[in-house]
Structures are given as C-alpha cells and as structure tokens.
Structures
1.
Amino acid sequence: LPKTVKRICCIGAGYVGGPTCAVIAKQNPDIQVTVVDLSEARIAAWKSTALPIFEPDLYEIVEVARDGTDGRRPNLHFSTDIATAIDEADLIFIAVNTPTKTAGLGAGKASNLAYVESAARMIAEAATSDKIVVEKSTVPCGTADSLRTIFAALAPHLAFDILSNPEFLAEGTAINDLLNPDRILIGSLKDAKSKSAAEALAQVYNWVPRNRIVTVNIWSSELAKLAANCMLAQRISSINSLSAICEATGAEIEELAQVVGLDVRIGGRMLKASAGFGGSCFKKDVLSLVYIAESLHLEEVALHWKSVVDLNEYQKGRFARRITRALHNTLANKRIAILGWAYKKNTRDTRESAAITIAGQLIAEGAQLAIYDPLVSEKQIFDDLESACPNASSSVKVYPDASAACIDACAVVIMTEWDEFKTDYAGSPTFGGMANSSTDDHHLTSTSTSASSDSGIDMQDDPSEKSAVLPAPGIDDNPNYSTKRIDWRHIAAVVRRPRLVFDGRNVVDSDMLASLGFRVQSIGKAD
Ligand code: NAD
Ligand code: UGA
C-alpha cells in the first residue's frame, strides 16, 4: 500500500512553491504543508497580508489554509527553519530556481543546478528518516540521477524515493491552472517502491481527475517539461516570424492565426503574435534543451531549438526598429510612453520582459521614456533597466498612471496586454473613459480578446482567464488595476501629433483609435 503523506515540506517559496503549496494545503486539510526559503524577507511576506508575489485569487487560497478562515486548523506554514521542516516531512518538494548558468561550462545555455543541489544537500543533512523527494523545479534530463548520487553519498543509511513532478502553471493564471490542470505529470522509476511513492504523491492531487494524472518514467518526465515549454515558445516564434511577412505583404496576422488555429491539429492557443515572449522560463528552458542537444552532439537539433530564441530576439529588435523608423530614425530627446512593463498581464513579474530589451534599444537611440505599469513598482523598473542598460536612469521616468505618462509623447508603445489598455472590453458602449464600477464583473468574465474586433477572432480562447476574480484588498499596490480603463480620448488630447501608437500586443482596435486621430501600428499588420 502506498504511504499516506501527512507532512509536506516545500523548499523554495517562489512563484511555483508558494501558489502550488497553497493549493495543495487548501485541498488537503489533513496534510500539514510547510514552505521554506533561505530568504527571510520572502517568508515574512508570505506570512503577511502583502504576499511576495501577485496572482489573481492567490490571497483567498492562502487565507483559508494559512489562517484557517474556513474554520480548519491552519495547515499552511511558512518558515526559514529549513532543517526542521525537512526532518518532519514525509514528502519534500524541491521548487527552487534553475536559472541559466552565467559562468563556467555551458554558460549562457545550461541550467544552473546549484540551488537544486544545495536543496538536496540540506535534505541529506537534515533528514533522520526515509523521505519521498520530488523535483518540482524544471531540470535537465538526468537530474534525478545526480540527486540519487548526493543522497547515497551523504545519507546512505536512509532511503530516498526520487520523483519528478514538474509544474505547468503559467503566471497570471496560476491558481486556475493549479485547480484545473491539463495534466499532473509524475515520473518515477519502474520498481514497486518508486511506484508506491508515485501513488502517494498522486493522492496529494486529490482534486484532479485520475485520468489527468499521467505517470511516466522519470527521464521522460524531466524531458517532457522542457519539451512542453520549448514547443509553446516555438509556436510564438513561429507566429511572430509570420508577423514579419504579414507586415510586408498586407496579410494580417490575427486572421492568419485564426485560420491556422482552426485546424484542430494545430489549435488556436499560444498563437498570439507579440513584440516577443518574456518570462523567466521560455528562454532558459529552450536554451537548456539546446545545451542538452549540443552535449549529445546533436547539432541540427540544437540549431532547431536555438532558432526559437534567436527569432524572439529578432522580433524584439524588429519592433524597436519599427518605432525608430516611424520617428524618422532619430529618437534623440523624443518622449516615448511605454505602457506596461510586466512580461504578461496579471503578474508583477518582469523577468525577461520584452519591455526591458525594447526600452534599452530605444534609450540607446536617445529616447526619453515615460513608463507606466499598473502593478510593477518604480524600483523594479529601475532595477531591470540598471542590469539591462546601465546609466539608463536619466532617460527614464516612471508614472503612476497612463495618461500622465502619455503627456507630450511622440509615440505610445504598448508592451503588456493589461486590460486597462484595451479598447474592446465588455460593458463599454463606447470606449475610453474610466470604467465605471458596474462594468467590473463583466470585464472580468470576458475572454481575452484580440484587437481584431472586425474579424471577431478570439485567438486566446483561454478558459483559465474567465475565472479571474478581484484580488483581496490590501495585497495589491493598485487595487483598481483590473477595472481601470485608459481614456483614449484623453490620451489623444495630450500626445503629440501624429499620435503614433505601437501596439506590441495587438490589444487596441486600430480602427477605433484611428477615429480618434491616432495612427496605430500593430504587430503583423502593414502600416
Ligand atoms: P523563484 O526564483 O520565484 O523561487 C525560487 C525560490 O527558491 C527563491 O525564493 C529562493 O530564495 C529559493 N531557494 C533557492 N535555493 C534554496 C535553498 N537551497 N533552500 C531554500 N530556498 C532556496 O523561482 P520560480 O519562478 O518559483 O521557479 C522555480 C522552478 O519552477 C524553476 O525551475 C522554474 O523553471 C520552474 N517553473 C516556474 C514557473 C513559473 O511560472 N515561474 C512555472 C513552472 C515551472
Ligand atoms: C509558461 C508556460 O505557459 C507554462 O505552462 C509553464 O509552466 C511556465 O512557462 C514555466 O515553466 O515557467 P508563463 O511564462 O508564465 O508560462 O506564461 P505564458 O502565458 O506562457 O507566456 C509567456 C510569454 O509569451 C509572455 O510574455 C506572453 O505574453 C507571451 N505570449 C504568450 C505570446 O507572445 N503569445 C502567446 O500566444 C502566448
């Protein structure tokens, strides 16, 4: 019979460890879940009302499990006492960061497994009884073997069952993704003991239909996670490559994506053309696969995947050049408003955001940037710019709202698909004007539509987006972030002529804005 898990420890209280364990704890009142981290600040924030990360619906889940607001005995804990949490647990998730190596063998491509290894060492040193150890982090194929070697060397008297259970959540929709996953993937060895450990882990996911829990061998599991991210990123690079052809020919990318996506073999999601994908994982995971292929001397395979990242860099550069060209190839002292800094909506995360690269290129051309994002802090924006293009701070000002950022702007550049910037939200008979609160619920249940309202395309058709609810008051820097609306009429009055808008996310209706006197350049649409 599989062991019943009573206590879980999760090493790493980040974007994955925090939300995943909050949901596991909420769904398993009988399991005590402790999330640990080296960062005292992060743990203190998880214990407070100002959580360290923003995710729609997260606070409500944390409140139930951490504070027992539904009457339960609290079963979600946050701690920096890593050793105690490890020793008390039957099952330990390793959910630490696995960034790209910056030095040494494989620098710039290979995954840096130092944090995974340090977590494994902590487990080996703190454990006094047998444990199930679960790789939650995204790791290269073969990492489970390294863990086994570490445990065998450091704690030979104990038995460790090593499982792979990669996470597929996307930020901004993490809670919905965790509650309604397409699949839960569990990789184990083939022997009975490993299978029993896999079953114990499967039982933790008690809210997921059994037919969505897929068990495979551990190497397939590790590689499948990388493969999934690479194929998602590849779709975006493919559609972005086609957007360049569209801009040169008069074909329209939204129409193209609709037609292509209607083929059920292809499907319509992850085909939204953009100024480039961002986020902490796509680039690093594609590069990790490139490195794996290179290490196996599979040069053609490596080149294939490398082109996904190259195309993304090209797309970002192409967008920056398009802006520069439209402003007569000189941006010196021209004010450009940047709307959106997060790498996607409904998150504060800016890691690898396309906005950072594009802002850097515009600054290099001499532009003065006026930046606004509904959730990202001024400090975060300056930190991002400092590492991407040092000495940029004198060329940048951050504003608390979009209209202030747009005053006297020669161009408005949309970098994140925040609902606030859209022109096609529900409940709005016209567009523009601050949304009145009666439209709030409507907009929250509307789908994330593309800008091409004339073609009626809803490329994203992402059911997860429909469940977003307002964040709890007090945890959000900008509690109106999801209901506020840009007044495009007002923007038309404050920007400089010829009122250029560069829509890096295809979220505005260019015809609507044209009727207000704007000239909109969208991705994948000829000027
Ligand atoms: P993160 O940087 O937000 O969090 C990682 C946390 O681990 C940090 O708080 C860090 O302090 C902590 N940590 C590192 N080493 C530690 C140690 N030895 N002991 C205790 N704490 C330690 O990272 P993340 O975004 O949560 O990603 C974690 C992993 O999950 C990565 O492998 C990533 O590829 C994968 N992943 C991320 C996402 C996502 O949406 N961010 C989705 C799926 C998978
Ligand atoms: C992605 C995957 O979607 C998750 O399944 C995976 O678990 C996660 O990476 C991970 O391993 O970290 P995430 O990066 O949070 O999730 O968000 P996505 O929705 O995939 O978007 C990534 C980037 O691609 C964003 O910049 C987004 O704006 C862009 N994108 C997305 C497009 O340009 N077009 C699209 O059609 C979709």
Note: The pocket of uridine-5'-diphosphate-glucuronic acid (ligand 2) is lined by residues 138, 167-171, 229, 232, 236, 270-272, 274, 277-279, 281-282, 343-344 (CB under 6 Å).
2.
Amino acid sequence: YQGKGAGAIHINQLGFRPKDEKAAIITSQGFHFDSFQLVDADSGEAVYTGKLQGKGVGDGKADEPVLDFTSGDLVYKADFTSVDKPGSYYVEVPGYGKSYTFTIGTDVYRNVADALLKGLYYQRCGTALEADAAGEYTHDACHLEIATLYEDQSKQLDVTGGWHDAGDYGRYSSPGANAVAFMLMGYELFPQGYKDMKSDIPQGAIGPAVLNEAKYELDWLLKMQDTQSGGVYHKVTNKGFEGFVMPETVHENLYVLPVSPTATGDFAAVMAMASRIYESYDDEYAKEMLAAAEKAWNWLANNPNAPGFHNPSDVVTGEYGDESASDETFWAAVELYRTTGKSVYHDYVKANYKQQSRMGLGWADMSGFGTISYAFMDEKLADSSVQRALRSAITDNANTLVTQAETNGFGIPVDSSDYYWGSNMGVMQKATVLIIANELQPNYDYLLTAHNLFDYLMGRNALDQSYVTGFGSKPVMNPHHRPSIADGVTDPVPGLVAGGPNAGRQDPTAEAKLPADVFPMKAYVDDKESYSTNEIAIYWNAPAIFVASYLAMPQQ
Ligand code: G3I
Ligand code: 9MR
Ligand code: ZN
C-alpha cells in the first residue's frame, strides 16, 4: 500500500486463531479516523466494520488515539475479535492504508513453533547440515579440532558439538543451559504442546523432537565439565570473532576458557532437570547427567567464593560476565532436590528462597527457573510454605505485567528501559511467565498479555517488523548471523529470533543509522552489521519456542 498509511497498520503477520482476541494497532500519524474494516483478502469485500478504540474504551475519549511512550506514536486499536471464520484478511482504514494479509485459522502458529525449534538445529556445531534436513542451508561439519585449555596450554580437550551461540561461532555454557532449560521446562509443563511438533530434524533415539534437539546441547555440555573437579568451563571460542565466513572454514585455535561458578551452577541445574525428564527414554543417560549434576554441585559447595568469569586480556569473545552465582546455585538446588529428594538440596532452597524468589529467566539471572520448578514440584515433596511463596512470586509478577501492559499502546508490559540488547528475549520471557502463571491461577488477562507480546514479536510493533526470519510479511532479512551472510542464499536461515530494538545503539551501524533520541521501540536496524539490534541467539529462540509451542496447541 503506497498511501500515507503505508506501514501504519500493525498486525501479527501470521494472524490469529479463531477464538483469539484479534486486533491491529494503527499509528494515526496525526490523522483522525473513526472506523476500520476487516476485508476478506480473496473476495476484496469488507466483512466487518468496527470502531477504532483510542484512549480506553469507557472513558469518553474513545476517539482520541493513545500516545504510546515507547514508540512516540499515537495509536488506535482496531479490534475484530468477533470475526472467527477461517480465511485470509487484511485490516483497512479506507483512504489511509491496509495491513499485511494474515490468516484466521486453527494452525496459524504451528509452522513458526516448529521452525523456531529447527532454528537450533541450524546452529549445530561439529556436524554437517545435510540437504535432507537443512534444505539450501547445508554446510560441512565445523569446529572438529581438539581445543586447548586456556589455563594450561599443554592440555587439550574434546569439546566438539553443541550449538553455535548466536551469529558468532562461540559456544558458551550458561547461554546453552538457559536455552535447554526453556525447552525442558516447556516440555515438562505442556508436553501436549510439543507432541505435534513436526520435525525433519535428524532424529536420535530420544522421544519428542524438542528433547532430541536439546540433547544435542546436553551432550556437549557434558564435555564442558572438568571431570576432576566437577567445575564447568565457561566457554569454548577462538580468541576473537571470526569474519563473515561459513563455520567449516574457520580453523583458528579453539580455547576452553576457565571454569566459572555461573557455568557450574547452570550446568548442575540443567543436568538435574534433564535427568528427571529423560529418565523414561534413556535411564543410563539420565544417571550420567545426574552424577554430573551432583559433581558440579560439589564444586559449588567447595568453592563458595569463586569469582565471576572475566575474559583474559587476549580473548574478546562474549564474556557473559556475571558476578553472582547465587541465583544459579538456587536453581541447581531446586532441580537437584526435585530430582533426588535429598535433604541437603532442600535445606539450601529453604535457606535461600527468600532472596531468590524472582523471575529472572535470562543468562545472567536464572532464579526464575528455580522459582518455577519449585512451584510445580509435587506437593508431597515440597515444603508448603516455600511453595506458596514461590507460586505467589510468579502470580505477583504476572499481575504486575498485566497492569504494566495497560499503559502501553501496544498492550505489552514493556517500557523504555526494556529496550536493551536482546529486548526480544525479555519480550518472550515475560510471555513465558504469564503463560506459566495462568497454569497456577487461570486468568484471561495473563494469556491475553502473553499473546499481545507474541503479536508484537510477529509484527504488531511500531516498525511493522516480524522479528523471526522466514516468517511474516516483513521478516528480518539481514541478521547478524555468519551462516546467513556467508552461505550465498538470499534468504537468511529461517526460524531465528533477532535481538530487536536496543535503545543503547551499541554498535557502530546502529549508532550511524538511528538518531540519538530514537524512540526505544524503533531502535532497530535490519542490517547485517548491527550486532546489537540484529544478531540472533539460541537463548532468544528458546523462550520463543516456549511461547509459540504453547499458542500452537489446539484451543479449548
Ligand atoms: O541489564 C542492563 C540493564 O539493567 C540496563 O538498564 C541496560 C542499559 O544499557 O543495560 C542492560 O545491560 C545490557 C545487557 O546486555 C542486558 O542483557 C548491556 O548494556 C549490554 O551490553 C549487554 O549485552 C550483551 C552483549 O552480549 C554484550 O556483552 C547481551 O546481553 C548478550 O546477549 C550478548 O551476547 C553476545 C555474546 O557476547 C557473543 N555472542 C553473541 C551474543 C548475542 O549478541
Ligand atoms: O560478531 C560479533 C557478535 O557475535 C557479538 O555479539 C558482538 C559483540 O560482542 O561482536 C561482534 O563482532 C564484532 C566486534 O565486536 C567488533 N568488530 C566487528 C565484529 C563483527 O561485526
Ligand atoms: Zn561449529
């Protein structure tokens, strides 16, 4: 649409399920409109005419658009929930503009959920991506070299495998554990959300596709443990970032960087969790992971004052610096207790849960995984007052998010301070918390707000941008993702979540292309050089897998 409203009618570019609340958000650009139409894209006929909603429906100012502070835009909401007939549609404000064409249908989110999981398959290191699964995105096996221990360079270690972290080819333990945790948590809470996951990913022996893919990372993580001490190495990377090249062409020395308390805590937690979840598929594997988890726990117990990881002066790859391992340790204690029932772990949880009852689900603060796991633990195993407190931490957080969403023109609980590096991770983490809170205490607003966050990711945002490669009418085309840049294929590798707007403009391209006073929701450039807004990362995909898999389930 070439008119003045081009790009102004924002929609989830995939569409909606029949029973979803359905709406477009329309940027008014100073114009005034009363109504909109929903048009059947096949016949070109308007099937519904609705009144645009502005500043709250009941406050007598329904015709004035709302100022959204994060985008600087005046916005209307165009609600067409009552239309539930499957088909192709677009939203139009006659004389102003139209939205992209989208679908109303029961399966609108199935493909994106599957593709987000497959995005991790494309990140696999140490194996060839073959055409039968990878299509045009093939490459030879990469990073097969034995790595050198940074601290004692006479020693070498086989740490092949795992997923490349992001747009670079480093492999980092905590981010890997975070991504796996989202997948396992999703599977443990909503197995039905993963059972229909169709997958052309090479299958191992382990059940559902999500567990099969997570195992690829778990197998690598097991190699990252120092078998002597039980400590877990922080990462394996070159000393610096490589150019925009395919992974199999990189033959720089790989270094295994020192053990860190955060990597060790995350490892203990995710291994204990995985041990419980994989037990019914492979008892031996479950035992191996549990033994590794307890060994890592012992390292934590023996090294209570170990400092956080810092890059040595000659290494510049991702630092993932984190001075506090208390949240990782808390999460580990919860998972170890839930899996083993041993009182030593429970004692730790009981002594520490008050300081840790937060909802952090990012690589730096993992406390939320502990909170959630304890909240859903078998009531016979749990201390009821601790469980009550941790359940409240979840629902309190969800209540806060719902309230916060009311002040945002896009209906999402996101304010200007949430637009940091990897903001889409925060967007999907909040949706995750809301979905989980709904399991504890069913609440329509929790699910609506979670859905609004997903709608934002899929294009209902001020830039009209779908942040998932290969999905939506205006998908990310130029992610800072080395294979996508170097492979000679026009379209980027599909199913990858871009970091998204970052008001900090933390790379030269973002600085050059975005004004210093850019509104946070617009602080994004679809440029391959913009690593601080347009990189992809496994731990940005993982919460999106959780959310999309939940929304892909058949509606009640
Ligand atoms: O958390 C603070 C927040 O409290 C504050 O308000 C805000 C204001 O700037 O900053 C927030 O911190 C930011 C942090 O990300 C948030 O997670 C930092 O400024 C920002 O520099 C930091 O960026 C990290 C980035 O590496 C640079 O270190 C990203 O989290 C992290 O995802 C990213 O990870 C990189 C790896 O290093 C290398 N591999 C690719 C990967 C993805 O880009
Ligand atoms: O490509 C790197 C990306 O994966 C990291 O997230 C980012 C921040 O650590 O750094 C990127 O590498 C850039 C480097 O920091 C500066 N020179 C240009 C590199 C590639 O664009
Ligand atoms: Zn590799």
Note: The first strand starts at residue 9 and ends at 10.
